[in-house]
Amino acid sequence: MAGAGKTGSDAAADLVRARQQLLAGGTGRGHGRTASSGGRLDAQSLRQALVDLHEFWLNTKAAELGIKADSGFAIVAVGGLGRREMLPYSDLDLILLYDKVDKAQVSDVADQIWYPLWDAHIKLDHSVRTVPQAIQVAGSDLTAALGMLEARHIVGNQDLSNQLISGVRRDWRNGIRSRFDELVAQTQSRWSRSGEIAHRAEPDLKNGRGGLRDVQLLDALAIAQLTDAMPGLGPDVPGGGLEQAHRRLLDVRTELHRVAGRARDQLRAQDADEIGSALRIGDRFDLARTLSDSARTVSYSVEVGLRTAHNALPRRGLSRLRRVPVRRPLDEGVVEHGGEVVLARDARPKKDPGLILRVAAASAQTEMPMSATTLNRLSDGSPELREPWPKEALNDLLVLLDSGRKAIGVIEALDRTGLWGRLLPEWGAIRDLPPRDAVHTWTVDRHLVETAAYASGFTTRVSRPDLLVLGALLHDIGKGRGGDHSVVGAGLATQIGKRLGLWPSDVALLTAMVRHHLLLPETATRRDLEDPATVQAVVDAVDGDPLLLELLHALAEADSLATGPGVWGDWKASLIRDLVRRCRVLMSGEQLPEPDPIDLAHIERAAAGGVHVDLVPGGGMHTFVVTIIAPDHPGLLSDAAGVLALHSLRVLSASCGSHGGSAINTFVVSPKFGAPPAAGLLRQELIRASAGELNLIKLLDKKERDAADSKPVVTGEQGVPTTYAIAPPRVIWFEGRGERSDGGSNTNPILELRAEDRLGLLCRLAAVLEQCGADVRWAKVSTMGSAVVDSFCLDLAGADNATTRRRIEEAVLGVVPGTRPKPPAVEGQ
Questions:
Q1: CA terminus-to-terminus distance, the chain
Q2: Which positions fall inside the ACT domain (predicted)?
Q3: DSSP letters along 310-332, please?
Q4: Domain's final residue, options 295, 315, 335
């Protein structure tokens, strides 16, 4: 079958010389594209030229050997040539198919193809099989199957190639259910070995998480008809979507081969500047930013693809009889369906700008991923939040940030789909920005999210947990813009704080946190703490504000922990702790919780006697103000809070006091779903609870259990369990001031609780305080995201001692979520 012409070795040597010429510059045979500059082909053109060159050689060789359309042979390409992604030093992966041909002839033809390539030192991965043999190998070897899914006919009998390609793909689709777990395990093992491309100094572009193997995985899932080949990300998202990310990774790997002069998958730091310049990206930092963007885009797409594929796996046996997943409500316009957070059927994204954050908060709280379809729908239709944000939107943002590490994946999904940048336009400058200091593990944007995750574990250390997590999220927002990032960031923090709708005083605090986030660590580690001038300089910098000092202390630890291993340790912690202690001594004094003043109109209603319940809009789309005025008696606060919780009204803030024998309690509430109940219904329920006809604690426990079990709850709805953040609860005692009815003065202790919120928490707290014999003189309740800071002025009826306080602490800690540590000693602050 052999034809005349050059020997096989000479022809293969020509192939090598032609490949070297392409790498040096110029165009390949049959390739009409022009070079990028000076005869040098750009990465994409070079790959296509290499494909054309190898196909030309194989076609020429096949013609010499008589491998034609009517022969019993076919040459099929897999790997880079099969995908049309031939890199400068890629292996040549070929399968010689045959049918009804003498084995001696098969061996002779194979030798005449393989040996010239070997003699020319071309890396070759080859096999000689019949179609049934090849399909059998694909059925038993997952790696081989993934390779053959990319098979492409080159020359010879087209029917043989078609039989192989269609047979392998048919068996892949039919057997995917039994092979899916192995596929996932193999992928995770590869990620574990090769790491994450987006956050490695020298990433593995092929095998790392977010690399080219992951794109091939998505193609394999698409062939199995389990997911789209580009799940979740189209070309309109930041970075250009999955297709653009794939091309960029290929371009970088192409130039890596060209620079290294051999096959290489791992990008070395010393080659980064040259590759960045060749691709006209910039220096190594610009290249790192491009790679981070591309890899994180691929990673998100793979996450969506695997999840979609798992849900789409064909069912067998009794599993086919499973009921269609139920849609369970999570928040207004947000439901759970099939293990994902999706939009309710009646949700209107185009008319509800706060829906994005409600979806995100629900995802973080329930640890269920947001549906890619939902994110795309939100990206296409949701309007931007107007400045200032409504309180509900800010609260949902805080719920998200309070969720700790559960928020990281949620924010990443929002970022990859362009929704996070819509909420925080300033984020674009730090998106995928690589660190300039080797001690940093993460890109700047990921570092901020990591810092917020750590800060969520410290929210009970501070009296303003909302400002702590916001400051953590924004403390490096000024990077990537030139100048001192603390100064630049402070200006941006002011801008963002106003947009979020914070009070002017809170905007000033947030700005100061960003401006001075390095103050404590730099002073503690570089200055003499024994020098009074050092301490005075810190106090002057924070303007003598103990709250700002408290926030900076927690932020310093979160920032260090999020930077990288070894940045935070006992030495650094002790220095900062000593500096803060010295500053507090110099500041002296303390800020005590104080009750809000009582509205004069409410005092007049109280004088009229009876039970009054008013419910009016609270200024936000989903907030309302409930005012309850009734004759004061033990248990009233617990009953009032319990009735609100039982009707799915979450207490965002409350001010509870008394006047002339009547309790005056004002609650700012937010309905979990829909509209709030009528004020008259709340009044009736309160009267029943006060008369002992409703066991509110028992009903709340049942509602909470039902939600955790995903069973119908009291209102007939269904719920999904909510997970809590990691901040341990904390009880602080203050020596407060009060007044006796005779006009004299009296000191009443004030208990402040910092903890995570839960269903009916205020009801439970008031109940246990009453059980401990403590009369609540006034209360001030604040819910910020998932964190609560509740203050109670207590009358202990002459039994104010360490034993009583310890007993009250134990009772209070017994009803809050999270860990139940042994109560600390009585603390004054």
A1: 95
A2: 625-704, 750-823
A3: HHHPPP-GGGGGPPPPP-EEEET
A4: 315
Same domain as 738, residue 628: yes
> For the chain, what's the residue count?
829
149 SS3 class = coil
* pTM score over 0.85: yes
Domain assignment of residue 90, given as a range: 8-177
In tens, the pLDDT along 760-812 reads 999 999 999 999 999 999 999 999 999 999 999 999 988 889 999 999 999 99
**Which H or E element spans position 58?**
helix 43-65
Measured distance CA(26)–CA(33) in Å, rounded: 10
Task: Please tell me what DSSP assigns to residue 38.
Answer: T
Query: How far, in Å, CA of 406 to CA of 383, rounded?
Result: 26
d(CA 179, CA 142): 8
CA atoms of 385 and 395, how far apart (whole Å):
14
Q: What is the rounded distance in angstroms from the CA atom of residue 211 to the CA atom of residue 194? A: 10
pLDDT digits (tens, 9 = 90+) for 319-340: 554 555 678 889 999 999 988 9
CB distance 811 to 717 below 8 Å: no
Judge if 521 and 620 occupy the same domain: no
The domain boundary residue, chosen from 315, 350, 377: 315
Contacts of 821 (CB under 8 A, 6+ apart): 728, 813
Selection from 194, 205, 394, 417 nearest residue 297 by Cα: 417
Cis, peptide link before residue 388, omega less than 30° from 0:
yes
